[in-house]
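Appendix B. Chain record.
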Amino acid sequence: MDHRMRVNPAPVYLFLLIYTCAHAFIPGADGPVSSQEALEGDSTTLLCDSTPDTSNDELMLLVWYRNNAPIYSFDARIGAEWSNPHFNTTGRLVADLNQQPTVLTIHHLRADDQALFHCRVDFALSQTRNLGVNLTVVELPFEPFFMDELHNKVDKKIGPYHEGDTLVLTCLVIGGRPPPRISWYSGETLVDASDCDSETPDIRENELYLPLTRENAAALSCRASNTRLAPPVIATLEVELYLPAYNVSIHFVEGTVDETLQVGKPALIHCQAYGSHPPPDLSWWLDHRHLTQHSNQTWNNKTKAATSQLMLIPSVVDNGATLACVATNTIMERSRGSKADVITLNVTYSPIVEVSRIGDGRLNEVVELDSLHLECEVRANPPVDRFMWYFNDSRIIAGSIWGDEVTSHKLYIEEATRQHAGRYSCAASNNVGETRAEHISITVFYPPECTERGIVLVKETLHCRVRALPAPDTFFWHVQPSGFDVQHLTTGSAILPLSQITGPLSGSLKASCEAGNGVASQEKPCEKTLSLESLRPQQPQQCDMAYEYGEFQMRCMPVENATYYEVSVWRMSTTNTSLILERRGSMGFGSGQAMAQGGAAWLVRGGLGKLKFGDEAGASACNRYGCSRALLLRPTENLLHAASPPWWHFLLEKDVGISLGAVVLVAVFLISTTLAVRLARRPRSKAPAPVIQVLQLDEVARDYLDNIGEHKVHASCSLRSCSSAYSDNSTESAPPVDRRRKPRALWDQWEPPPDVTLTLHRESAV
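Structure tokens predicted for this chain:
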């Protein structure tokens, strides 16, 4: 049977009206009542259980009431269906009696459809059944809107604020039945549900006091809800909140092994900062030094992450340095808007090595027999696992002069010797590489010591030959001329001029020297006895003999290194077996013609007095160290004949001379006047030219005479005691000789001349 058929409602309506008046339905007394909600404009389904309690019973009548007024009925006896035309004006009631429980659907609900609905079911045998449904028609509210604390309407966005500020905002909702509940949400988190009625009718509000933090910085939403049948009516407001980055992290991308860097090897490093609003400025700092060479940062709006890349080429000094990535919100104050991540760099590198000396004194100097302690100073990452030492670029092996410990970072030499002087360096290695240090030079100082030559006589200076390091700066001399006391002298160099020694130096000289260099005293002095004969002048080689001014004269060319000259006369002994020194005198300087040069030259001359047949005259060059061998000249017969006296020479004898002198005096007195005038006008006769004869002895005769002079001549004496004074070696001429008077040779009063070194050199005048 089709229960959706339309039937004539009049009889049924009259029946239901009479029946309803006679049997009024009282909810709660006649049957259960349930609640049901439906949205305005939507549909709702009312259920009624019309199943008989027993199988032999059957449905007779089903009626639906709204607030006790029938709106629909179905008479099973005749199969008639009826609906109230005032309620069902648009045919919005639809019944479905084929399913159990039966269904009555009301479409296009209106606000006045909110009422108490119940159904009445009559059976043939069973008792009448009543079921009530309290229908609530829900009217949704309008979309919420916002007002700030100044009662200004806010739309879409509010702010900006800083973290910690308090947001004051009011959400208002118009309409809604039943009245809606208003709640505030930050994202999906409920932050406030304390709504209330507004002073304006039909408006509800919720005023929010919200301290702003990162957690509630998501978009705020105001939700109005008065039913579970529909989602809340939501209005969203974006809060602009300035926030610093809450998470900054540094991580290595490439160029590292287990986050360990290596010197000189580029490494790519990323820095990411999350949660900053607006996007932060990322900066890199290495030990508080700002790094500007990095890539431009990027921003991911979805993840709210800023990223910056840094290409770092680490150096040795970067090991242990702090690398920081700082995210700064430039809108905020730096103290509030900065967040950083800091890591400590682990940079590996081969050892950096330097040799140093431990202990007192200078770095490169050590005194012999003192200890030498060298250390290999190393900086390395990872630590050094092996040390090696080198001496003069050769690796030091344990043993010999080095000891046993030569593989540690220290090299210890207990007693340094000269063998240890040289260049030292060390090498260190780790798993990155091996490095060798620059060498340092070690100088071993030692006290002076005498060399094989010891003391050497060079010209007129003594040289003390010693070896020492550093070079000596003080020399202590002990010199003793033969026959005299020891003299103690101190010099600042290794040379001692003989001029600083007082006393004669004609024989040997015993000398010793000790040097000092500030390290230690010389343990054993240098000693030597020196002969000074080599410092005597050479024998004169160019001499001549002449007779003039009433005596024999010896003239010689000057000799180098001679300070004075001596002339001597040697006479044959009575036995005619040897020459005996007759007399000795000094030679002075005079002017004359040099035979070899043919021009003016200074000559050394000395008077010899009277010479006889067999006599010889000698000339010696002398200085403070002694005289040379004498050059002996023998006058020739012609020279002796020219010097022989006239026949009247006997008158000059002593007795005859006195007698003749008296006679001459008487005669002179008588004729003095006449003879004086005539003699004054009488021209003088010129002296006859001197006859010069030079005699050169051969080598055999000279050696013979030399031996006689050294061993058989008893009248000779030392140069110091037999020399006479003479003029120095100035360039002035010798005083003129008075040709009218015979020069007198004072042999007995002659003294040695002072030490004069002649620098005048002449060739022989012979």
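Further analysis of this model is presented in Appendix C.
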